[in-house]
Each structure stands twice: as C-alpha cells, then as structure tokens.
UniProtKB/TrEMBL annotation:
The keyword Membrane applies. It comes from the Bacteria. This is Nitrate reductase. The keyword Transmembrane applies. It comes from Ruegeria sp. PrR005. It holds the Pfam family NapE. The lineage of its organism: Bacteria, Pseudomonadati, Pseudomonadota, Alphaproteobacteria, Rhodobacterales. InterPro entries: NapE_TorE. The chain crosses the membrane at residues 21-47. Keywords: Membrane, Transmembrane, Transmembrane helix.
Length: 57
C-alpha cells in the first residue's frame, strides 16, 4: 500500500497549482481588474459631465 502524504511533506502538484494561480492573479487578473474599474469610473464621470455639465466651482 502507498502511505498517505502527511501535511508536513509538500505536495508538488498542489504547490505548482498554487504558484500558477498566484501568477495568474498577480500578473494578469489584478491589473486587468484595476484598469477596468478605473476606466469604468472615468467613463461614468465623463458621461455624467456630458449630461449634467462640468463641476461647478
């Protein structure tokens, strides 16, 4: 029989999957999400200024 892996021994495929997930989040998803949020907010402000006019002041 094969012994069960203990929590103390690192499981290589899980570590590899965790590293790939971190890279996907840190390198691709987080910057894309930041650009989408900032771009969306800018678009909303731009459209509201077209409808209501520039800010008073």
């Amino acid at each position: 029989m094969r012994p069960e892996s203990s929590p103390a021994t690192p499981h290589t495929p899980a570590k590899r999957d965790e590293r790939r997930a971190f890279i996907a989040l840190a390198v691709f998803l987080a910057p894309a999400l930041a650009v989408a949020i900032v771009g969306g907010l800018g678009f909303i402000i731009w459209m509201s200024q077209l409808i209501y006019g520039p800010p008073a002041g």
